[in-house]
Amino acid sequence: MPLHINGAGHPEFMTLPWSLPLEQWPTDQIAALPRGISRHVVRFVKLADKVVAIKETNATIAEREFVMLRELQRLGAPGVVPLAVVSGRTNALGEPLEAALITEHLQFSLPYRSLFSQALREETTTRFVDALAVLLVRLHLLGFYWGDVSLSNALFRRDAAEFTAYLVDAETGDLHAALSEGQRSYDTEIARMNIIGELMDLEAQGHLEDTVDPMAIADRLQERYDELWEALTQTATYTSNIPLRIANRVKELNELGFDVSEMDMRETDDGEALVMRAKVVDAGHHARRLMRLTGLDVQENQARRLLNDLDEYRMLVSHPSEDEGYSAHQWLMKVFEPTVRAVPREFRKKLEPAQVFHEVLDHRWFLAEAADHDVAMPVAVASYVKNVLPNRPDEQSVLGTPASELNAAEMTADLPALTAEVEARSQETPIFEGDNTGAWGGAIDDEDSAADADDAPSSAPTVTRQSTKREPPAHKVPGSERD
Amino acid sequence: MATVTYDGASRIYPGTERPAVDKLNIDIADGEFLVMVGPSGCGKSTSLRMLAGLEDIDDGAIWVGDRDVTHVQPKDRDIAMVFQSYALYPHMSVADNMGFALKIAKIDKSEIRSRVEDAAKILDLTEYLDRKPKALSGGQRQRVAMGRAIVRQPQVFLMDEPLSNLDAKLRVQTRTQIAALQRRLGTTTVYVTHDQTEALTMGDRIAVLKDGVLQQVGTPRDMYDTPKNVFVAGFIGSPAMNLGTYQVFDGQAQVGRAKVTLTRDAIAQLKADDKNHVVLGFRPESLDRAAPNAEGAIPIEVDIVEELGSDAFVYGSIPNEFGESKDLHFAAGDSQVVVRIDPRDVPAKGDTIWVTIRGGEQHVFSAATGDRLNAPTIHQDAIVK
Hints:
The complex is a heterodimer of chains A (483) and B (385).
Chain A: E1 4-7, H1 11-15, E2 42-46, E3 51-57, H2 59-74, E4 82-87, E5 99-104, E6 109-110, H3 122-141, E7 144-145, E8 154-159, E9 162-167, E10 174-175, H4 181-205, H5 214-233, E11 235-238, H6 242-255, E12 258-267, E13 274-283, H7 285-294, H8 300-316, H9 324-341, H10 353-371, H11 377-388, H12 408-426
Antiparallel strand pairs in A: 1-4, 2-3, 3-5, 4-5, 6-8, 7-10, 8-9, 11-13, 12-13
Chain B: E1 4-11, E2 21-28, E3 33-37, H1 44-52, E4 59-64, E5 67-68, E6 79-81, H2 94-104, H3 109-123, H4 138-150, E7 156-160, H5 168-185, E8 188-193, H6 196-202, E9 205-210, E10 213-218, H7 220-225, H8 230-235, E11 242-249, E12 252-255, E13 258-261, H9 264-269, E14 277-282, E15 287-290, E16 298-307, E17 312-317, E18 326-327, E19 336-341, E20 352-357, E21 362-366, H10 378-383
Parallel strand pairs in B: 3-8, 3-9, 6-7, 7-8
Antiparallel strand pairs in B: 1-2, 1-4, 4-5, 9-10, 11-12, 11-14, 11-18, 12-13, 14-21, 15-20, 16-17, 16-20, 17-19
Helix pairs in contact in B: 2-3, 2-4, 3-4
């Protein structure tokens, strides 16, 4: 059978060395991104404009998973984007090679195993598990039975103070009109077993803090899952004040980050009460609202954080009676854009813009508390860029440097100088005026330190030092260069 | 270890008319290896998942031993789904990889060690117990995955197409290993596959399903020798049985130019609905070469000869200018007839060969219902001339 590539029409796919087993692909084509435990050979490959993940498996499985991932994508499930299936591969001798599934590398995503260059704290572990519970509930609501839920089969992206989990391996999954109790309970049971196994493996490797109890963490997944499932699917019976009850119920679901797109309401047989159940709920309530207002496409908790700031801006700076859309535009131009644009180019690969904004907000709060007075956003971002971002281990390590370990006194002492610097800069024409793309994009570069997620300790990333145009020559505070 | 009983178990998906699994009745003996087989969409995986607790049982019941598990949660059924391709944990020893589920179940250490050691002995992994998975070959890693299920000592093992992600060579190897392992462990096992060869080679008994309905359950020999209906006849056996619908005159089926005498018991069963037609089946390996125009001999025009060394197969067609042959379309397709012949005496393309159906090896089915008409044992058939 001749080589057959079915999927996205990407010219570069044709030029990849399909006649070699994936394990033998030349290293200059491989992006050494960290990866989880897998049954198959999985490697990340650099193309001109993106990084893709390639998994070798047999043709039937690859084809099935491709269709499944595409279907999940259509349903709006958080998962990796399938690009193509490559079948009919043969080596130089004409012997058949396994088929390959190509998926897009999810930018700024982190496989859990890449995060354990230091011992994993309990609090981080629980945030992973919480994210996985949310993912599982979302998939189950869509009728997807996963069959192999694990930390390895998901990718995690920072989402404000939390993580959002994405499905990466749909090989064992099945789509149904609705899941049975048995399917849901078996899926969470598999998740429990896998998480315990994965954490025990980290323990064996010495990458888990002694206080972390794998079984307690796995039980947490079950609890979080049950709580969320119950909250989203419960049936409520109301006898009085029904419009208010319904509004409250919708608000409750919104708070959980879900929109209600279909509500099932029935009168009881005696006509005395109303039985109500949210029939179809869609995750991403806050993300959608932010998207509508600003065009920013970010994750749910990031959106929540940004919306809080936006609402605050509308109340304090703009005017409560001002049109919401107009205020949002003002906030985008005057607050969000300048903040993310203040991040020098060389640090932009570390975090997504929305995540940077979230962290700057955190940093601002931290500074204000330490200095005992309000700190303006431009000053907070300057301090963040100077003190936090450069010291922060690169994106491979989610642990970062907790704010509490930064030297508050030093940073507070810095504030007057930074304020002066920011004021001086504000005299210049804002070079990004009118540019509200809100993103800085670009593929993740080769991260060679994580070649083998199993045992290689990650070393510091290579940071390209470039000068930025906006560095004001005067008022330079000694040490403000990133060194 | 336990028996498994499907007692009229049905699964009807909401919004569908036809049940995905329709009143399934199977009694699986303690220690038996039962293979459910059928084409995709036949309900075999659904049946397995009903037993696992992953699909609701809308009607009827399922029993494991003397316990009705119809409404029991999957994890409480004492059943293990076996996956062939678990990811193994790279930093844990082989023993820990096998035993960690027991640790979760809070079973004490010495018990875990002894169960792991027993499983390792059966799986031939004893000397690797303290090594890391990295040190193992592909096959050994797979056995570790099996070991995970074995140490739990469940009542029943369930396997859903476990070999589907292996290449052809490894599939044959693993197939033999699983069958041998199951016999050594003696644990009741239900195995699902779409591959009839897998079913024939592995199962103590085979259950053939189609459209959610159990067609036949029996030993591989039963299925091969006396398929209960046209579907089973065409599904079991490779190359597939030759099947065609032919008119009957005076107890003889008109097959092309040939008149094939049908067994008396089959003729006796013919009903008005059959309109004097039968479906006649004969396996490629049930034919003997005969002289041209010999009595009962069927002429076959040779299209292709496939030589396999030990065997040779003729793919041909029955010239139908005389017989009113309306052929059933089955796996092999169209009106093609397959004949196994002596590889040392191979006809050329375009030749006509003559073959007779060996005594007792004809299968006669009702043209109306597809059900078997001739007596269910081959030996009785053989006596009838």
